[in-house]
């Protein structure tokens, strides 16, 4: 089985690679279209700023390639946000795989932004959360989040409920960092690799 | 709900943990990787590695250590000590660190905070502040708390937040090593003034000290070293106790 991590200007993906190492998975970090298309699984990571990342994806044609993929694709953190319709972060038009917008978390209700740390997820209904328990904890660091919608497969609460996970057809996404979310995160990655 | 975090801190020299530990079941208590894995297994929410050496050769050892830790544990970890440039941070993040912590170098060159936030994102930039109460004021200190600066602690905390820090690691040098409790009042002031998470450090001696720092002190995380290393407090017991007191914990 071949897993590809999409390479673009979205920060440090070392932790994702180490997590795959721990699971004994073979992977390749690349932005090559043929390699991406021929992969069994595709991981679309992301740390950073949405509009800059989208500009880079457009430049490389990755904004057209990713939505056209047929194999299971997992977007994480900013990767997930870029798979949505639009992000409030510098007014970025995103790929629109998930029909929902990304909005800034409320910072005016005594809550610190970025939302940093371990938070519980509930209303779990993703194939990726098989074996998890309602209100298991995962590690978040983000200032923007997708609203809850028909594609939501896990919900987290921080000032307002938001989509911790999304799923539509072959596209999966997680707002948190599964790669550093302890055994819970490891299970989610394992479930993805087993799809 | 978002939990409060419990963070053991490991002091590193030449790639080994410095302070002794009381973990008899560990084959090599001086091995930071083994210790880190054990803390992760016990339910530590995050780890901080503080490198107390900084020569070029030792930096290479540190990078190797960071790589080994990142390969082994599946919780976030921060590396601090001797970091003064974008290149230093790049090397640590590429080796697998999730966050880095800067202290004296931020005081020397505050623009470094902006540069790091811009280059790598605020999420991985922790600014450590060592503070001491001098003549009725909280003053930022460097060099392990020995050298006073001109900076007032609360103003400095707000400044580094504006410059792009993602978290603050606040160590009260007055409380550090006393085991008489965290600097509750100052922690609450900083947490109220800054809109980024505050990791409180220095003074932890009992489980109730953690209750105080999370409730009255409004800290987002509590960091300690020797009480964990010498098993005066075990992390599972601490998290159970805090949970019983109504503090949200990942258990």
Automatic annotation (TrEMBL), chain A:
Pathway: Amino-acid biosynthesis; L-histidine biosynthesis; L-histidine from 5-phospho-alpha-D-ribose 1-diphosphate: step 5/9
Active site annotation, chain numbering: 77, 177, 179
Domain of life: Bacteria
Main subcellular location of this protein, as a coarse class: cytoplasm
E.C. no: 4.3.2.10, 3.5.1.2
Gene3D superfamilies tied to this protein: 3.40.50.880
InterPro entries membership: Class_I_gatase-like (IPR029062), GATASE (IPR017926), Imidazole-glycPsynth_HisH (IPR010139)
A biological-process GO annotation: L-histidine biosynthetic process
A single GO molecular function term of this UniProt record: imidazoleglycerol-phosphate synthase activity
Subunit text: Heterodimer of HisH and HisF.
Known function: IGPS catalyzes the conversion of PRFAR and glutamine to IGP, AICAR and glutamate. The HisH subunit catalyzes the hydrolysis of glutamine to glutamate and ammonia as part of the synthesis of IGP and AICAR. The resulting ammonia molecule is channeled to the active site of HisF.
Protein name in the entry: Imidazole glycerol phosphate synthase subunit HisH
Gene behind the chain: hisH
UniProtKB/TrEMBL annotation, chain B:
CDD domains assigned: HisF (cd04731)
Pathway: Amino-acid biosynthesis; L-histidine biosynthesis; L-histidine from 5-phospho-alpha-D-ribose 1-diphosphate: step 5/9
Subcellular location as annotated: Cytoplasm
GO biological process: L-histidine biosynthetic process
Pfam families named in the record: His_biosynth
Keywords assigned by UniProt, alphabetized: Amino-acid biosynthesis, Cytoplasm, Histidine biosynthesis, Lyase
Broad class of where this protein is predominantly found: cytoplasm
Assigned GO CC terms: cytoplasm
Molecular-function annotations in GO: imidazoleglycerol-phosphate synthase activity; lyase activity
Known EC number: 4.3.2.10
InterPro entries registered for this protein in UniProt: Aldolase_TIM (IPR013785), His_biosynth (IPR006062), HisF (IPR004651), IGPS_HisA/HisF (IPR050064), RibuloseP-bd_barrel (IPR011060)
Active site as annotated: 11, 130
Keyword Hydrolase: no
Catalytic activity as recorded in UniProt: 5-[(5-phospho-1-deoxy-D-ribulos-1-ylimino)methylamino]-1-(5-phospho-beta-D-ribosyl)imidazole-4-carboxamide + L-glutamine = D-erythro-1-(imidazol-4-yl)glycerol 3-phosphate + 5-amino-1-(5-phospho-beta-D-ribosyl)imidazole-4-carboxamide + L-glutamate + H(+)
PANTHER family linked to this entry: IMIDAZOLE GLYCEROL PHOSPHATE SYNTHASE HISHF (PTHR21235:SF2), IMIDAZOLE GLYCEROL PHOSPHATE SYNTHASE SUBUNIT HISF/H IGP SYNTHASE SUBUNIT HISF/H (PTHR21235)
Entries under HAMAP family matching the protein: HisF
Physiological role: IGPS catalyzes the conversion of PRFAR and glutamine to IGP, AICAR and glutamate. The HisF subunit catalyzes the cyclization activity that produces IGP and AICAR from PRFAR using the ammonia provided by the HisH subunit.
Family classification: Belongs to the HisA/HisF family.
Family matches, as NCBIfam families: hisF
SUBUNIT field: Heterodimer of HisH and HisF.
Protein name per UniProt: Imidazole glycerol phosphate synthase subunit HisF
